[in-house]
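Hey, why these numbers?
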Amino acid sequence: MKQVKLKKKKKKKKKKKKKKKKKKKKKKDKETKPETGISAAAKAAAERLRLLKEYEEKQKEEERRKREEEEERIRKEEEEKEKKRLARLEKKMQLKKEGKLLSAKAKEEKKKRELYLQTLKESGMLIEPKEKVKAEIINLDLNKAKLLLKKKKINKLQEVEIMLMLMTKIKKLKKKKIKIKKVIMQKKKKKKKLF
């Protein structure tokens, strides 16, 4: 009986050992065996997902960097524009102080004034410095002629010549007066006396 019991015990021990060996073998096989198709696909999907996330993060980072660069560029452009605007404004103020800068209305007024002066010059109403000198010389000649006539220090021929000269000059002056009146009437300005 004892022998039978011992045999049974030995058999049980052997079975246990075999079971342990099988378990160990299974564990080793699991570790060394290539993964099944499902787990490999899951791993590949996880890897793809990780790579996709990385790519998206890189894209976001790139977009953020580009946006920052664009904002910086726009800010610099605005600063540059502001500097230019301030420089122009400063220049305008300087010109205004010097009296060189005129508004559109002032420019128009200046042009009108210049045209008016030009017409007066052409008509002989306004005399420039050079022309003034010429007019004074003519007046001096006339005065001399009058004095000579008064004193009668000239002969008859000279008297006739002087009278003719005076008459032609008076005619010219009258013509100038008529022209001046026409210009004044055209411009609808107050009449200005020549003499």
